[in-house]
Known about the structure:
Number of domains: 1
CATH class: Mainly Beta
Distance between the termini: 24 Å
Largest sheet: 7 strands, antiparallel
CATH architecture: Roll
Strand order of the largest sheet: 2-1-5-6-7-4-3
Number of helices: 3
Number of strands: 7
Strand content: over 45%
CATH superfamily: Electron Transport, Fmn-binding Protein, Chain A
Amino acid sequence: xxxxxxxxxxxxTGVLATAGADGKVNAAIYARPHVMDEETVAFIMADRxxxxxxxxxxxxxxxxxxxxxxxVGKRLHLTRIREEKNSPLIDKLRRHCPSVKSKSGGDLxxxxxxxxxxxxxxxxxxxx
Length: 128
């Protein structure tokens, strides 16, 4: 199943984990990613800790836990490609309240990631 189809149908909770230059890890609740193509996803971010971390460390991991009641979901290993500040595409992509801006009233970023690897929520495809 393609990522686009999966995230269009799946319901659940997502967590985006990043680390800063100092190695300190942060995890934040994030909506399902916007699937641009099978190798690229994007997230809308305010200028907070997660966005700050990806400025110095381009790697992230997105964990999606389906609300099925069992441990089903996906882990996406990601590498930041680029970002757009206050992009008009943000309003087109937003799923809820597209006219509402950042809670802080600040800038919003559309951050693109290359999908390096997709793993199931539990286990892996190989023992490496």
